[in-house]
Amino acid sequence: MTKRQLWMRFIAHIDRQLLLGIGLLLLTSLLVLYSADNASWDRPLNQMRNIVVALVFMWLITNLPLHYLMRTAVPIYVLGMVLLIGVALFGEISHGARRWLNLGVTTIQPSELMKIGVPMMMAWYFEKHEATLTMKNYFVAALLLLMPTALIARQPDLGTALLITASGFYVLFLAGLSWRVIGGVTVAALASAPVLWKMMHDYQRHRIMMLFDPSQDALGNGYHTIQASIAVGSGGILGKGYLNGTQTHLDFLPERTTDFIFAVYSEEFGLIGNLFLLALYSFVVWRGFIITSHASTYFTRLMAGSITLTFATYAFVNMGMVSGILPVVGVPLPLVSYGGTSMLTLLLGFGMLMSIETHKKLVKS
Amino acid sequence: MKKRVEFKNHQREIFHFQLRLVVGIGFVSVLLAILLVRFFYLQVARHNYYQTLSESNRIAIIPIVPNRGQILDRNGEVLAHNYSGYTLEINQNKTADIEATINELSTLVEITNKDRKRFKKLLAESHNFETLVIRNRLSDEEVARFAAQQYRFPGVEIKARLFRDYPFGEKTSHLIGYIGRINDAEVDQLEENDLAANYRGSDYIGKTGLEQSYESDLHGTTGIEQVEVDAGGRAVRMLSRTAPVSGNTLILSIDAKLQEIAEQSFGDYRGALIAIDPNNGEVLAFVSKPGYDPNPFIDGIDTQSWDELNNSPDVPLNNRALRGQYPPGSTIKPFMALAGLNFHTRKPEQTISDAGVYYVPGSSRQYRDWKAGGHGSVNLFKAIQMSCDTYFYGLAIDLGIDNIANYLSRFGFGKKTGIDLEGETSGLLPSQEWKTKRYQQIWYPGDTVSVGIGQGYSLVTPLQLAFATSTLANNGVAYKPHLVKEVQSSRSSENRLIATEPLYDLNIEPKDLDLVRRAMVAVTQPGGTAVYASLGAPYHIAGKTGTAQVIAMKQGEKYDAKNVDERLRDHAWFIAYAPAEKPKIALVVLAENGGHGGGTAAPIARKVMDYYLLGKVPKPLTDAEVKGAKEHD
Fold first, then answer.
1. Which of A116, A348, B10, B430 sits a CA distance of 20 to 30 A from B357?
2. Is the same domain home to B391 and B468?
3. Do A250 and B39 touch (CB under 8 A)?
């Protein structure tokens, strides 16, 4: 084999358009992290390491034929459930929430695993019963979704629970859940909102209240929202310029390398920057939809659709939260926020998308 | 067949899926639109609002307090200045247990009970998150000792600050006054006068004396530093700076040495002394005895010391020179004499026969002269020289109260002099109208008789009497008395002069003036009531003694100093100016409970005049002078 052939083999399962979009977002991440970390290389370098590791895993996944992918659905889901129960029983408490499980060598957050595990399991289940779908199947799939999310919500980790619910819902929706059921559940959810309100933890209620009037508690829970809105708003059309964000560099913005990194970006690059970022996300999502529409099997269609819609939801929830239209739920900006776990989960998802796209082509040819 | 159905199902299924996918795309588009609208709202529509918030987050405006202006005497002697020193201050917010911290600190630096009490008071009064002073004026050794242990006290810091200091202490207390921490009422006042901005960062304001009345000159203009701060409030870099402008320097007309001599000359007497240059109204000495040390007031005096000062029977906090109101006694006689001549009620050569008693025509009530048996044949000159009461009883009755009030008010009696200090009182120049208003009573001729010799309802402040004496010394040309000679601007080299133009000229008939002035010289010559005042003086002194009654004597009762409680004894007055021919100094001495003007007040005046005119520093009192105190008014 020549070098060229080797290279061709190496990139055979990479979707170039998707990689372009992801790559630009990752570059943006490094650029903004450098600023958010006050012109220090610490976080950008760590993030680069996270990216490299995640890219390797993504590359591995892209090379995995679809039937292998499908075969891992059940084991991942079962493992995730076991770990979630483990967390509920023996988990470590940090910041008032029981989310981490100490495995001796490392602590892990099993809810991250379920971000992939749940939609996979549901898609696998629908594929199994593809020919004879009845209401019962949707009900079982819903159960597969609700069991892990209930455990995660109890930790409590409302943000992750909501996102997993969303990804599972997208599977149900794409699998053709009837509009009547969707409507009924929506009405029921609205009706039970007061009950949910009562069941919520104080800090969660606070965060929702803050959404309506952040100034009520400007130095407490409202502080994040107010300072983030100031950062975004003061950025204006052109932004304050790279490394010139005063909200960022004078420490007014909290959690600016993680959940609130969008405020840093928005302050320094302004509306123009925001439009560029939205364009990048839209491009990735668009490519996701294209891949979804090409997908050859029921499982891959559902998976690709769910991954794409979930990714879009992530981005929307984070930007909505930073710009003050959604409560602060602790969702990172996908591919941009600092953090290894979410990077890995996201790129594994994109690896699947690429695999779905490229292996289908190989099958066809 | 089966295969076909499956195929058909497959097609339909794909179609349904694609439909759902389109709904999904639509959903994502809606999310995108929401974000676009939101970004437009924040970054375009509300950009200015958030820009302002961002700037106010980032920029702190730090006031730079100007150095307070100095106060110097006419010869450049420092009466109030600033010196840099160290204070130990506790930040309330960074200190959990203040009591324990203070106890810990007291092992390193001396912290007295007074310090603790003062700190508690400051703590109770503090309205913002300020640091409060626990110890002032640390010694270098104490600074070093604390600095070595500073890590143990996160909320305690040493600060270098400028301190106000009054080197003359109580000798100039009633004149200079003092500064103190700005209180709530003063904050309101400053806001009302649109001065709050200039006082940002200022902790002190003039509370009394010249520190108060020249506050606007002394304070200076506060500078501004715009600093970029981070969320923790730490300054990151300076954006702009407007330097403060120091307060103006006050140059007083006061002669500090003269002030000191005047103060000391009182000995143990309480009272007041005001010396004025009659040619321009410059106040040369301004004494109210006893004084108090103004220095502890600056950072808040402790309650115990305050109570001691406030409850002392000597009332050291009362500015007698400015606010004390006393009957003028016989010191009013020269002015009464001028009134008599002015209204032609008496001719200079006209004599009366004084048998020691006066009756108001048509009344049997007796008004005694101070001298039993009287002075015999008395004209105006002799009446002033010997302070003949009977002469002035008759003069007062013949003038009538309206003329008296009219004429005396021309010399400033019953009115504030307008000196550059706050809180002046206006004395009392009684009139028919006043009595009706005040007591709803008619004016009796007896009232007039008392006013004729400066008793009865009459009240003057030492300052008023000094102003009147000064005007008399200057032949009726009045100058407003003022303590500040010039204000030296810190901005330019230009000085602002205070009051150089005369207020008015009384246009007194020169021959009347001459007569009264000659009689006042005779007062200090053999045959006068204050002969010891000018004994051995190489210049002529014009003067007049006076006695202000503290308790009223009943009809027929005789006053005997020995039988009266010390604090109920008469106050001694002496007014004088010298040299009599061309006066350079006019002064008033009041010695509370001093008895006779000639005996106690006049020697004090003499020492002041000797120093001012001859540069002679007085020696302690001799036996002969003590004996002289026996002399009668």
1. B430
2. yes
3. no
